Amino acid sequence: MDTIIQDMNDAIRELSLAEGGSASGIPSVTVWHFTGDRVQMPQTGDPYLYIVLDGALRLYTPSGIVDCMQGQYAISKIDTPLSGTVLAFSDRRDLLALSVVFAVHDIITAVLGLDDDLIQKILNGHLDMEDMALSDEAVIQSVHRLFSAMKTPVRSEFLRKAILQEVIYYVLCVSRGKQLLQSIADVGQADDIYQANSWIKENFRHPFTVEELAEQRNMSVSLPSEIQARCWDGAAAMSEASASHRSQAADAG
Known about the structure:
The protein contains 11 helices and 9 strands. The protein has helices at residues 2-13, 76-79, 104-112, 116-124, 129-149, 157-172, 177-184, 187-203, 210-217, 219-222, 225-252; strands at 20-23, 29-34, 38-39, 48-54, 56-61, 64-68, 73-75, 83-88, 95-101. It has a 5-stranded antiparallel β-sheet. Strands 3-8-5-6 form a 4-stranded antiparallel β-sheet, with no helix packed on it. Helix 1 (2-13) packs parallel to helix 5 and helix 3 (104-112) packs across helix 6 (157-172). The N and C termini lie far apart (55 Å).
């Protein structure tokens, strides 16, 4: 893990770093560089990771103080930082960090792709402690892969989005994954996402409409429009794929 943090640290220090936030060259990823005591937090309503790469950070949140050492991270929708200060400067007398912003629809897309039993474990807080510890390390490893992928000769937006889904997957599988999901949809809505996902997987081989899905899960009443859209998009895609499969089978017959 120390090697991964150092690798990202070295890669970021090759950039032209201004005080505060700077573009990393990777969509949704911002580099943060501070030489003063006060730390500026990202100004966005979307959830984000805030990873300390060099130095140490103290966050002031509504629930108390959260300290992040080198290689540790905070999750905005859970830790909800109001402000931050440098707890310890690096050997270069600065603090270096990066943030990875997740659009809500990206998180819902990841949730809809999870296995049903895993969603239930997240919602019920039944994830294995050892698995959560491994997922915690995998969050940083996945962010490192995001940097590596964008250094390839042919930069791929498809690959970036795929790795971003991987980052979200591991964030959902850490001890605070349930809180992240519930910060986007309340407890009942999170359960509705699980139920909608299960219904789609059980019925995708048979013709159905998104209206039938909404009626089955009462989605038109219980879920926010953005979450509805992601569930409905998944239903439409599966329904279309099923119809295509049936058509091909009929032609072959």
